[in-house]
Write a structure and sequence with these properties.
665 residues, alpha+beta, Porin, Immunoglobulin-like, 60s Ribosomal Protein L30, Chain: A, eight-stranded antiparallel barrel, six-stranded mixed beta sheet, 33 strands, extended
């Protein structure tokens, strides 16, 4: 059943978002700098979990039920306007909340002397006044608060129901409604809590907005709803506060920087995950791009592809490709590249097992159709000579550009040679379902993927992430100076993107954990040095308990951030149903190195969110809300890129979104 405060809460959230949007539009051109506000005004919204203890039997002067109720619980709404005062330079401050506070609940069912079940519920509620002292124990946005609570009763109604004896089914049910007698009109108790301020506005905004998740505890002492009997209420409250305030104009914007003067505004954050030890075994569904790429000036199959001898065919197994290793590997994701460089052997083996299947080989070459046809004929010759595929099952053709070309009209990039290198290829197409991925059909359908079981070491979500929000506009480049508790300094960079990820092992070495002081040193386009600081605790990722997950990949075309319709169907009908109840889905997008790094960073995140949106829609259609998502966009970051970028097949595979499905522990 929908909670009675769902609609007002939803309206409040929507109204807050509209207010934020309108304010952002009005102040979009403001170049002044402001301090953080000292006064904040807003509203707190939350839910009370109420725990009942003690005895309740005499409900009012007219009715005493046969047996006492002793415990119960329930959920109620908390909604209160609020005001806060705390100077930006001080850790101390004060808060005041005045609003509506429900302590409603349902007592546990009891048996009366007639062996009849009895229930008691109440809509107990108050107008609450909660002044608090506020304290920030650390140099962060985390704060503690506490103080008295003065509550004025506005509802003390009850609903008592006594059912018939189970042995006398026909007997009537007794229901009594009324108000508790001897109700305390005023309650004086206490409350303590903690919250975290999340800044939604930069110091370029005169009016600044904050959202603050919070949790509070209201102990039982002082919380007696009535002056008779022993009924007490303890409450745990969780919610979020929406606040806004107006800062003071800074006469010299440079004074707003942490260390050095700067005419720019950036926000520096460091995120280091907890890194719970896990040995993750990943059952990966690895997609096969239906292309064989050729080197410029040659129509021979490159020697980086695994080419078997005829007597080796009988030993070839698709699920044991490690024995058929390519001659050259980049050192990154070797296991997956072993799969791809065996594409001709996988194709030959599948065609041998499915004698009715046929394929078309289309060679594309900027040097002319004849060169493209020669490339296709060499692939055909290999399949015929080594796997004994009947020549009539393979047709060939030559083209200048492939049907799905990376180089399209309007492409603006300094890396045109790399794009054209990717278009020099033989495309494998088929209409035989036995060769194709689920739901794929037509001449451009992808080949059926390969399943791999491997062990993942230090997953990307265990990396330390350094983010400089606004670096693209503010800096020419930025670097990191990381100092441990013993004063040992490490230097990283320079970087040009807003985000970089560094493996914890690179920083920690063999140290299990440590506290670090991080200084971001940015150089503006005008040559000014800007510094920002942050403290972070890092934990080394180490193998531990075994956890098995599933991995799927979606391949995107050059510079695209929306999957083709067939991949939408694949994500909806194949991938989503395999997400276990309570599971976690980690989605990380990537790009190749072609184009502007900042554009590729945004492109990779857009790809990851595209996949998330498709999966969320499929889950919602199934009525599921139990899945947690973690989204990353890594762009062309070489530290976490799935593959190298030396060969066109590696760049094609880097235009990807990887989906890790982790079961609930």
């Amino acid at each position: 059943m929908r909670a009675p405060f769902t609609k007002p809460l939803k309206s409040l959230l929507i109204g807050g978002l509209l207010l934020l949007s309108a304010q952002a539009t009005l102040q979009a051109q403001n170049n002044d700098t402001y301090t953080r506000p000292s006064w904040y005004f807003g509203v707190g919204v939350g839910a009370n979990y109420n725990d009942y203890r003690g005895t309740t039997q005499q409900l009012n002067g007219e009715f005493t039920e046969p047996a006492g109720f002793n415990k119960g619980n329930g959920l109620g709404l908390f909604l209160a306007p609020m005001v806060e005062f705390h100077k930006p330079t001080s850790r101390w401050g004060v808060m005041l909340q005045v609003g509506y506070d429900e302590r409603k609940g349902q007592f546990d069912e009891i048996k009366t002397p007639c062996n009849c079940p009895a229930d008691l519920s109440t809509d107990l509620s108050y107008i609450t006044v909660e002044p608090s002292l506020r304290f920030q124990p650390f140099k962060s946005n985390f704060y503690l608060y506490g103080g008295p609570r003065v509550a004025f009763n506005v509802n003390n109604s009850f609903n008592y129901t006594q059912g018939p004896n189970p042995l006398t089914p026909g007997a009537a049910t007794t229901e009594v409604k009324g108000d508790f007698s001897e109700a305390n009109k005023t309650i004086i108790s206490m409350q303590v809590g903690a919250g975290y301020d999340i800044q939604l506005s930069s110091d370029k905004r005169h009016t600044q907005y904050v959202i603050s998740p919070f949790v509070a505890f209201h102990p039982y002492f002082g919380q007696e709803p009535r002056s008779v009997e022993t009924w007490t209420v303890s409450t745990v409250r969780a919610g979020v506060a929406f606040k806004f305030g107006r800062g003071k104009l800074v006469s010299n914007p440079a004074t707003a920087m942490i260390i050095a003067p700067a005419p720019v505004d950036v926000k520096f954050t460091v995120t280091a995950p907890a890194n719970v030890p896990v040995e993750r075994r990943v059952r990966e569904t690895f997609p096969l791009r239906n292309y064989v790429f050729f080197d410029l000036g040659s129509d021979e199959i490159p020697n980086r592809y695994v080419l078997l001898k005829k007597d080796e065919v009988k030993d070839f197994k698709e699920d044991q490709l490690e024995v058929m290793s390519p001659k050259k590997l980049t050192g990154r994701s070797d296991r997956e590249m072993e799969v791809y460089y065996n594409i001709l052997n996988i194709l030959g083996d599948r065609m041998s097992k499915n004698p009715a299947s046929t394929i078309r080989l289309t060679g594309a070459s900027m040097q002319g159709k004849d060169d493209g046809l020669a490339m296709a004929e060499n692939v055909k010759k290999y399949l015929v000579d080594i796997f004994a595929i009947a020549p009539a099952r393979i047709t060939t053709e030559g083209r200048i550009k492939p049907r799905i070309a990376s180089e399209t009209p309007g492409v603006k990039t300094d890396d045109l040679a790399l794009i054209r290198e990717g278009d020099r290829r033989v495309s494998i197409s088929s209409t035989s379902p036995a060769l194709l991925q689920e739901f794929q059909s037509g001449p451009e359908g992808s080949l059926k993927p390969v399943n791999i079981l491997n062990q993942e070491v230090a997953p990307v979500e265990s990396y330390v992430v350094f983010n400089v929000d606004g670096a693209n506009e503010a800096f020419k480049s930025w670097s990191l100076v990381i100092t441990d508790s013993k004063g040992v300094v490490q230097n990283y960079g320079p970087y040009t993107l807003e985000t970089t990820s560094i493996a914890g092992k690179t920083i920690l070495g063999t140290t299990p954990s440590g506290d670090y002081h991080v200084t971001m040193v940015g150089t503006t386009k005008a040559g000014t040095i800007v510094k920002k600081e942050a403290d972070v605790h890092m934990v080394l990722w180490t193998p531990g308990e075994r956890e098995e997950g599933m991995r799927y990949s979606v391949i995107y075309e050059f510079d695209e951030n929306e999957v083709i319709p067939l991949y939408t169907k694949y994500l909806t009908e194949v991938v989503t149903p395999k997400i276990p109840v309570g599971g976690k889905v980690i989605i990380h997008g990537h790009s190749d190195i072609i184009g502007d790094p900042a554009h590729n960073q945004a492109l990779s995140l857009a790809r990851a969110n595209d996949v998330k949106s498709i999966i969320e829609k499929a889950l919602a259609k199934a009525g599921r809300t139990d899945v947690n998502f973690e989204i990353h966009g890594f762009g062309e970051d070489k530290g976490v890129s799935p593959f190298g970028n030396k060969y066109p097949e590696e760049r094609f595979y880097n235009r990807t979104v990887i989906i890790d499905i982790i079961p609930k522990k």
